[in-house]
């Protein structure tokens, strides 16, 4: 079993850290929110006073932070954490951030002789709690092999997307596509119902036909079609509209850096921003259904 | 076994009629193209000189025509086929047409005491040949039960979408959603590859994650990712861009009649029309990938 | 001075008919709404009991109706008005309808030896009242010359767009472009203000620069920038969102019939439909500004 | 008359610098391209070996560079030009860059006691040569008054958009709106012509009606409608597609930083990127017309 520092104990980070504890690892965590630290201690982890404190005597660092600027702020700069992590250590950076930001941290880590994976996740808070997250990782294949046991304690599907930054690229591509087919599904449901179809019948036909996609399979946006989907619970829980909007923004940053044209993905972003303007940012992202229904 | 008239022996209709023959039915077919009639005869069917000729002594009529105007032209009007079909007969109208056009034919058939299903298909020419089409049917549930054995000779999945016209509505909703996730998939593939990912690795990650959809499962638009997909054969075969464009136009007609907002679906239509302007209308619809790659 | 029948005395038709009276013409009007007839009589016109009654002894017919089906219903069919209008008469069809519908009426009129113009207007109820409408006309140039004096009593700018139906085509092209630059203006205003600019300063800069357009010149969508614009009066008055939505739908019908790709125009339609879903259909069409502001 | 340093003598910067010379100023210029320096000397200016060299003994600095990174690279950092410019000097930064980048340079300049305007231009190379550019400026109103005479030697319309960065914001808002109405105009032209209208007649009707905009007034995208527009000269000259694409990208950066929704503007960006994929990046931006014509 390993000693692991875990930086960032939010809605995702805390249950991930707890799963590491459950798997027998010794976890020293840090977060700015005291109650998060208390919950980690209650679960059998150790609270640290700072990120620097957390990495003391540790060769594996996991981080889970809100955005690029927090990750760059944590690791980079003369006084950044990379200056204090031992050479030969392993950094698993699980935040969803811009590929370019991830590559900057990779480059700095490499200079220090530290191995790193960008390893953003999908699966939401439910997947974090259940230890069934999907990891999309970027970095050396050998580094992934070293990290696999640690990641397996937190997730089920572990993909190697490619070199440094590739995990972030795969994540934004996937989430952009998810937003596109969720919107497409919501439009098709509204169009069919307006034209007289029963929502459950339509959903089932498309699910089994060439319209089939993950939104129809697991997460139908029409209330009542799936008992367990957020749509059937006032669009509460799940993956918030404002988080999807953030990911779509990262996809557009990636598109900007390569001049890629993404008409559907950028329209999805604009429509999600309209929802936020309407005060629906905290609702599950399947609440785009509301745009299309009177 | 039944006597069946089959009107419209094109790329879809001919193999469908042949499957009815194979299943033991007595099929009298009509088409304006002599070679189509010859092929039906070669397969064991009977050639008729006209649609009226074909329905002589027959109580089941199947039709497969290009567009609303052909279907209305065939069945409606003082001299339309409905005036000559025996009361109590069964009409299976398999063309993909506007829901409103289908409802008009339904109404006229009902007045004549003829039972009818609108029963558009998906599955393409390959599905038509293999007898594995999907039927999305609209009309009375009892009518579907009478038709089931006939349909089963031509297809595998048989859905009851709802009342008259509902089959057409389900079809256009499904195909609009298909176009949306195909475009979303093509964009995501191009974005990922431009940002350094291997196309097969990216495709596999998204297929197994929340981006998953039928395009990734069966029909990847990136050349070389799937051996059997049209993308790996210069986008030949499959479902032509101009046919997808036609279906997206029908979806917009349905949206217009109900005032439904479909930003993704209508953008998909506009992008498919751009492809036709570029002379790519005969290519498989997954060739939208070309829009996004230099 | 002439005897003129005027069919359709709604918000637009009534003031147009009154302007014909004012110009010295003898106007017999018909509408299904009794109060409209009373207003015409009060202005010096004559009330008729039916359209057929109104055209009695008259060689000039003007019509102003809500949609294609009303126009087709009025003029076409065995008992349509064209069967009762004298050969050699002049029909000025001012409704905004589908180009194809206009062409159908043109063809039927030509068979009867009746001259016709499709002559849709822009300028709204204010222009109708002031007699400053713009007419976009389709039909023979010689017919326009015969009609010019009549049209001049109701409008200021009289354009000859081309042959039969061309007036309607010009109208839908113009109004689609209007919707596009109104949306573009609203987006630019919201983007600039969110980034710290004063709305009036930004509006003035763009108006005088290459962003300049009619919305900035006459009809700024940001409240308070222009004293007299609907935006400064809770988006009341002006040109209703649901009327703009109707015109954008006609533009899409025209695009469908020629396979034209109009990504901006169709997106505008979808966004206007979203506004109607939000219950804003009666507001002036510049209220799209609300979509982009918290 | 003043001594002025001019950094960046490209297609825009060189004629601007020459106009300063013509107005009687003493201009020392710097550019990495020797022939640009030679042209400045031929026009009566002075060539410098470096930016540092150029600002020697000078209290007014004008810069015109391609992108944010060049401007930040020039002015910022320990060895940046701001460290060498005398306190009390005036910096006129005329490049089109991200508002956030402009604000960074403003803040650094303020710390050094240097007055600055962000002063991006519109009007293209023709306007630069003729001295008829439009300046959209951000910074203190008093600074603009000091700069007015200098700017007036290069341009005709000088706007004060607001505080630091506001010039850039106004520029990206304006250019996004320009792209939107150019696309809207190109779509409307193609739709009208496909439906049988004469392009010049349609253009004139819309120009005088509510569709009116700068593209119709000065820059019609349909070949042959305006003798002097790039469209009538194979879309050569004018404002390149790739430069418009750059500005639309800056607009999306600004939208991202405020969460602004810009469906039309972002769709315009995606369509311009499609043009670049098709190898049309060097054509004038009105060549979007080609997307919509067979």
Automatic annotation (TrEMBL), chains A, B, C, D:
Asked whether the keyword Transcription is assigned, the reply is: no
Q: Which UniProt keywords apply?
A: Branched-chain amino acid catabolism, NAD, Oxidoreductase
Entry annotation: catalytic residues: 171
Q: Tell me where in this chain the 3-hydroxyisobutyrate dehydrogenase-like NAD-binding domain is found.
A: 165-291
Q: Which domain of life is it from?
A: Bacteria
User: 6-phosphogluconate dehydrogenase NADP-binding domain spans which residues?
Assistant: 3-162
Instruction: Give one GO biological process term.
Output: L-valine catabolic process
- List the transmembrane segments: none
Q: What is its EC number?
A: 1.1.1.31
Under the GO molecular function aspect, what terms does this record hold? 3-hydroxyisobutyrate dehydrogenase activity; NAD binding; NADP binding
Q: In which pathway does it act?
A: Amino-acid degradation; L-valine degradation
Q: Which reaction does it catalyse?
A: 3-hydroxy-2-methylpropanoate + NAD(+) = 2-methyl-3-oxopropanoate + NADH + H(+)
One Pfam assignment: NAD_binding_2
Q: Which InterPro entries match?
A: 3-OH-isobutyrate_DH-rel_CS (IPR002204), 6-PGluconate_DH-like_C_sf (IPR008927), 6PGD_dom2 (IPR013328), 6PGDH_NADP-bd (IPR006115), HIBADH (IPR011548), HIBADH-like_NADP-bd (IPR029154), HIBADH-related (IPR015815), NAD(P)-bd_dom_sf (IPR036291)
PANTHER family for this protein:
3-HYDROXYISOBUTYRATE DEHYDROGENASE, MITOCHONDRIAL, 3-HYDROXYISOBUTYRATE DEHYDROGENASE-RELATED
Q: Which family does it belong to?
A: Belongs to the HIBADH-related family.
| Stated name of the protein | 3-hydroxyisobutyrate dehydrogenase
Organism this protein belongs to: Pseudomonas pohangensis
């Amino acid at each position: 079993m390993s000693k692991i520092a875990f930086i960032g104990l939010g809605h995702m980070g805390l249950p991930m850290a707890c799963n590491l504890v459950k798997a027998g690892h010794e976890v020293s965590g840090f977060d700015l929110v005291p109650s998060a630290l208390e919950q980690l201690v209650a679960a059998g982890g150790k609270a640290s006073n700072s990120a620097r404190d957390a990495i003391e005597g540790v060769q594996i660092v996991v981080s889970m932070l809100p955005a690029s600027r927090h990750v760059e702020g944590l690791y980079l700069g003369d006084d950044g954490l990379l200056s204090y992590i031992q050479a030969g250590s392993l950094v698993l950076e699980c935040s969803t951030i811009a590929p370019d930001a991830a590559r900057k941290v990779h480059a700095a880590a490499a200079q220090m002789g530290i191995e790193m994976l960008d390893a953003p996740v999908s699966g939401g808070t439910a997947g974090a709690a259940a230890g069934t997250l999907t990891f999309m990782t970027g970095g050396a294949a050998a580094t992934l092999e070293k990290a696999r046991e640690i990641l397996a304690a937190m997730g089920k599907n572990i993909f190697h997307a490619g070199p440094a930054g590739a995990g972030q690229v795969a994540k934004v591509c996937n989430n952009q596509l998810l937003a596109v087919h969720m919107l497409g599904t919501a439009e098709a449901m509204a169009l069919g119902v307006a034209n007289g179809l029963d929502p459950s019948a339509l959903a089932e036909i498309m699910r089994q036909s060439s319209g089939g996609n993950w939104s129809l399979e697991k997460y139908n946006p029409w209330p009542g079609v799936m008992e367990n989907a957020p749509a059937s619970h006032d669009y509460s829980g799940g993956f918030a509209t404002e988080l999807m909007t953030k990911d779509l923004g990262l996809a557009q940053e990636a598109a900007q850096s390569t001049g890629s044209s993404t008409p559907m993905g950028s329209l999805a972003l604009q429509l999600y921003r309209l929802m936020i303007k309407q005060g629906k940012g905290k609702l599950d992202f399947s609440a785009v259904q509301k745009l299309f229904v009177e």
